[in-house]
Amino acid sequence: MAYKSDIEIAQGCKLQPITEIAKTAGVDGEFLEQYGKYKAKVDLKILDELKDKPNGKLVLVTAITPTPAGEGKTTTTVGLGDGLRKLGKKSIIALREPSLGPVFGIKGGAAGGGYAQVVPMEDINLHFTGDFHAIGAANNLLAAMLDNHIYQGNSLNIDPRRITWKRCVDMNDRQLRFVVDGIGGRVNGVPREDGYDITVASEIMAVLCLATSISDLKERLSRIIVGYTYDEKPVTAGDLKAHGAMAALLKDALKPNLVQTLEHTPAFVHGGPFANIAHGCNSVTATKVALKLGEYCVTEAGFGADLGAEKFLDIKCRMAGLKPDAVVIVATVRALKLHGGVPKTELEAENLEALEKGIPNLLRHVENITKVYKLPAVVAVNRFPTDTEAELKLVEDKCKELGVNVALSEVWGKGGEGGMALAEEVVKLCQQPNDFEYCYDDGLSITEKLNAIATRIYRADGVELVGSAVKQLKQLEALGFSNMPICMAKTQYSFSDDAKKLGAPERFKITVRNLKVSAGAGFIVALTGDVMTMPGLPKVPAAERIDVDENGVISGLF
């Protein structure tokens, strides 16, 4: 049989009209706002209608530390949702929207893979329903109003050297990290150093994903700090009277997007903060709607469990009052061998020694979920044809030593049928009571919270604040922001802040070089190592493979 790419599989699927998917989900037509035949937004008024309905079970899908060998977290999430449906369970999936940066940069698409995808995948990977454009517009409106305020007389006494708000664009573009603007004479603004973030790193993305209503959205937007005055007082979007107009741009973007899987399982795809430089979870609104509509809400958090899952549990669950019922940790034999020191070119050969060296990465993630957060977990091994029985048994034996079962996931090739074994394990886990705990308490100091994440989740020796972070810590404490949770910005490729330290490194410190408050989102961002909020394109961008023919058929998105 000829190999089919992800996009060929997706384009060969017969989609159901979104009105039918809405019926399957239990969304009444009065709450459905169609964007063409196969996608729609759901009005948040549905939550009032469903307020007395009990929540379904909340299942989080996370993964080991990512590698170029791939783990298949989104694919597993989709396949698990389809697998639960095959068991007769009413499952609803909740995913993040892909950013154009990675789509045209390193990934070429992010809607699952093989026979476990959300569709229409081309729409989802490209402009979709315009949410990211609305977020970018709101972000840049605030930037324009800020600079205009300074140009028009600066009655708020803003120090142009202490502006923290950046413009954004949803594309990997290293050229825009540091810019000088406002040059060319007085009529062109006030000259100053500036820069761009990628849209998914904008605080407005986090605000949108954590807001629960239009009024909550407006309140959060008004609290966003854009800079400081000459006497070091914070200046907010509310001070600039920008929050109302920003909310107007975002009113439709706040509504969750409804699509379907290849097997017609309803899926909400909404919001898309990166997990390495933001909080890495889909919107609270999408999750809450899915929990009301389904017996099981299957959601994911970005990158490895040290990033996305930590933020899902310590930020999103804390703010939204959510409690997970089970966690799935996705791993591949190939990726674990890479963590054990095998070059990417040699991953297909059996290598039990390297696998044993790499497995501690998986086991550390498992221990974090089961011992730190006290949640029931299952390891989903995303099976590849080159995996040997001896390798699979080694992974299973090591996990069982920690009291955690392993389920083979074959959803890439078999869809929901290949996720039924995993689904059965998840159903069992959701029947168990759990004593979910956060990694740290609200009442701890900023330094204590940083150290809790570093020592309990990363297994570091602690954190070291360097450069401007030392002064920023004192300022944030003086301004009364110590009660907020921490959003760590860290490389996704290692438990440490050094991308080259694979596996389960020990005896290291996390270096925090910048602390800033996202007062609208409600957390403090700690930038560690050399992580950046504007990625660059690789040597050979995925964009070079993406094309469209004269009939409008897109190719190259995987």
Task: Give a written overview of the molecule.
- This protein is an alpha/beta fold and 558 residues long.
- Helices cover 35% and strands 19% of the residues.
- It contains 19 helices and 25 strands.
- Strands 1, 2, 3, 4, 5, 6, 14, 15, 16, 17, 18 and 19 form a twelve-stranded mixed beta sheet that branches.
- Helix 7 (131-151) crosses helix 8 and helix 13 packs across helix 14 (352-372).
- It is globular and about 70 Å long.
- The protein starts with 5 loop residues before the first helix and ends with a strand.
Count of alpha/pi helices: 19
Q: What is the helix content?
A: 25-40%
Distance between the termini: 19 Å
Task: Determine the mean pLDDT.
Answer: 94
What would you report as the Rg, rounded to the nearest angstrom? 23 Å
Please describe the biggest sheet, giving its number of strands, its sense, and whether it closes into a barrel.
12 strands, mixed
Low-confidence stretches: none
Q: Strand tally, please?
A: 25
Beta-strand portion reads: 15-25%
What would you call the structural class? alpha/beta
Report the principal-axis shape: globular
Question: What keywords describe this structure?
Answer:
558 residues, alpha/beta, 12-stranded mixed sheet, 4-stranded mixed sheet
Question: Could you give the topology of this structure?
Answer:
Blueprint: H1 6-11, H2 18-25, E1 32-34, E2 40-42, H3 46-49, E3 57-63, H4 73-86, E4 91-95, H5 100-104, E5 112-113, E6 116-119, H6 121-125, H7 131-151, E7 158-163, E8 167-169, E9 179-181, E10 192-194, E11 196-198, H8 203-210, H9 214-223, E12 225-229, E13 234-236, H10 243-250, E14 257-261, E15 266-269, H11 284-293, E16 296-300, H12 305-320, E17 326-331, H13 333-339, H14 352-372, E18 377-382, H15 389-401, E19 405-409, H16 411-414, H17 420-430, H18 446-457, E20 463-465, H19 468-478, E21 486-489, E22 510-518, E23 523-528, E24 547-548, E25 554-555
Parallel strand pairs: 3-16, 3-17, 4-15, 4-16, 8-11, 17-18, 18-19, 20-22, 21-23
Antiparallel strand pairs: 1-2, 2-14, 5-6, 6-14, 7-12, 9-10, 12-13, 14-15, 22-23, 24-25
